[in-house]
């Protein structure tokens, strides 16, 4: 799995423009909660920042990037903030998309493709291990978890553009990807040509003790 993740990461450089254009920003409420009441001048290190989508939102509020020393250490009283978004399709479209992936990838199905055919129960999976990992570090206070719901409408082409920004889809053989995208597009067309994706953005925070 580690080797697969490393291989997929190499695809990012080729699709960075698509990623930056297609990936949604985080809800303003998430950034406000993350930075607190006085964001101006706050030192922030954005790790795993992609094209800097969240970084730009934080900089707009007056936060700034840290020096090399601050990047290697979290100061006492500083906060670890983990954020990500997960979404789900309308149930009938999720059924149709799941059938597409199962038909084209019978040994993998939907499980191997993020955002493929997601449902509400998929949005908060896997978080227990994250909280437990933080709890195992004595330097951190008890972690808190907050969720922020939002939604975005996608038409056929917008959704295919979004999938093109994902390494699990970009890594496919071009002919296979073309067949997959044709089938996904047809499923969205049958759904009316567009759909509303219901998202939740999770924010887990933990303060480093003095």
What is the strand and helix layout of this fold?
Blueprint: H1 2-9, H2 12-22, H3 28-35, H4 53-59, H5 68-72, E1 79-88, H6 91-104, H7 127-135, E2 144-155, H8 156-164, H9 167-170, H10 174-190, E3 194-207
Antiparallel strand pairs: 1-3, 2-3
Helix pairs in contact: 2-8, 6-10
Give the strand content: 15-25%
C-alpha Rg, in Å?
19 Å
Distance between the termini: 36 Å
Provide the CATH topology. Answer: Rossmann fold
Can you walk through the features of this model?
Helix 2 packs antiparallel against helix 8. The protein is an alpha+beta fold and 210 residues long. The protein starts with a helix and ends with a strand. Helices cover 44% and strands 17% of the residues. A 3-stranded antiparallel sheet has the order 1-3-2. The chain has a single domain (2-207), classed as 3-Layer(aba) Sandwich (Rossmann fold).
Please outline what is shown here.
This protein is α+β, with helices and mostly antiparallel strands and 210 residues long. The protein has helices at 2-9, 12-22, 28-35, 53-59, 68-72, 91-104, 127-135, 156-164, 167-170, 174-190; strands at residues 79-88, 144-155, 194-207.
List keywords for this structure.
210 residues, alpha+beta, Rossmann fold, 3-stranded antiparallel sheet, 10 helices, 17% strand, elongated
